[in-house]
Amino acid sequence: MYYDLGKKDLPRILVVDDVLANLNLLTDILTNHGYQVRPANSGKLAMRFMAVELPDLILLDVKMPEMNGYEVCRHLKADERSRNIPVIFISALDNVTDKVHGFNAGGVDYITKPFQAEEVLARIKTHLSLRRLQRQLEERNIQLRQEIAWRKQMEKALQESEEKYRTVFETTGSATAIIEEDTTISLVNEGFCKISGYSKEEINDKKKFREFFVDDDLIRVEKYHRLRRVAPNQVPNSYESRFIDRQGNIRNILINVALIPGTKKSVASITDITDFKQMEKEIVRLDRLKLIGEMAAGIAHEIRNPMTTVRGFLQYYKSKKEFEQNREHFDLMIEELDRANSIITEYLSVAKSKSADLKLHNFNQIVETLLPLIQADAINSNKYIQLELSEIADLLLDEKDIRQLIINLVRNGLEAMSPGGHLTIRTFTDDDEVVLSVQDQGLGISNANIEKIGTPFFTTKDNGTGLGLALCYSIAARHNAIINIQTGPNGTTFLVRFKINGSVNLFV
Ligand SMILES: Nc1ncnc2c1ncn2[C@@H]1O[C@H](COP(=O)(O)OP(=O)(O)OP(=O)(O)O)[C@@H](O)[C@H]1O
Ligand SMILES: [Mg+2]
Known about the structure:
Layout: E1 12-16, H1 20-32, E2 36-40, H2 43-52, E3 57-61, H3 69-78, E4 87-91, H4 96-105, E5 109-112, H5 117-171, E6 175-179, E7 185-188, H6 190-196, H7 200-203, H8 215-228, E8 238-244, E9 250-259, E10 266-272, H9 274-318, H10 327-351, E11 358-361, H11 363-380, E12 384-389, E13 395-398, H12 399-416, E14 422-430, E15 433-439, H13 447-450, H14 468-478, E16 482-488, E17 491-499
Parallel strand pairs: 1-2, 1-3, 3-4, 4-5, 12-14
Antiparallel strand pairs: 6-7, 6-10, 8-9, 9-10, 11-13, 14-15, 15-17, 16-17
Helix pairs in contact: 2-3, 9-10, 10-14, 11-12, 12-14
């Protein structure tokens, strides 16, 4: 039992000495100096005490019957619970060998009898402080170990979640990029490489997003980027824009953007909607053609009837003697009526709903048959025609329609060029399509006009009717073909793509 049990937080010292006078003296000194003391008059008793409760420090006599101090000390040091309790030997044996023995047994200090009370107190104080320090270090050590273990766990969890996100990032259907605040693209997925034509190494941390947008859209997109970081609610999360790939092709895209929480980075996923947009345009165009068809059916007949009457009378009067000197005027009037009639005929063929005479034909052969007519046109205006025809599959075509299509595209091309220009007509196979291309060296079509191409009566020419291309689109639609236009300051190419196995559309 410790003396001074009332003060439990005071350091506890186990004093072991077989000489009662020493034991009492030490007990008195220590109790008077603020320690709780447990005296034991033998090593065995000391061991029994410690089985119940451990002290903070042990003052241990060396020479004792039965179990001497060294033995007690060795037992303590062998036990995990007590190995760190400081042991100070107190002994009358004052030679080096004994002291070495003491330290070897695990003691931290060695005091020789007779001792000074101050010396004992000072050493106890020192060793208790050292022990406290050691304990603090041990605790810190445990904390650090726990922290390391926790960090490792977190790292593992982070790695796992990063792998998860990377999988999502890579396998999400659309092209995705992570964009830094300064507009650098720091990470892209395979989808982005596919749409852009660049490799990851060429983009990651090297390219800014401005390189992928057409100039007209850039100001808007950069404004969104800035504003998203300041006032995210004022910016749409999804918007349409135009994307430029490595080859300079422009694609319509739908962008979905979101800030990555807690960062200034955004993640943008891009969907290519070029085909969808093209289809939308085609639908609008077809709607217009349908409307024109309905109008044409209604009025063409009504106009032609009176025109036939007028033409008949003009011809009749032209042959009369009294109008002989006006014959030229009659001819002019008849010519003008014929021109009006031919416009109506063309107008009606725009509105025509199906190709009447479908047979297996080869494009090359149709082009070659038309060549003299086309050459004549070109020579008249001092321009050149080049043919580059490759072997292509036969297609189900209405020959009259296809002649119209070729003539209209070729005439437009010739009209777009200054004298000396070359016009190239090509046929080739691309995947499962036969393509007819007509390329000129004109000045190209402006952005504003390209939207109107194919609209009936849209023309920029003084004598144009603006029905040529409307007719081409109508013929293409009837053959389930698609018209693509590539245009720039060095010229325009019209590409008409026919599906080799595509069925002909009889209902357009
Ligand atoms: N190859 C081309 N290069 C430049 N502009 C073109 C080309 N083809 C067509 N265009 C533009 O498209 C417009 C419409 O062409 P479209 O063939 O429908 O009518 P048009 O040639 O004006 O008259 P027409 O009915 O006599 O053919 C043209 O007026 C022209 O501005
Ligand atoms: Mg034309």
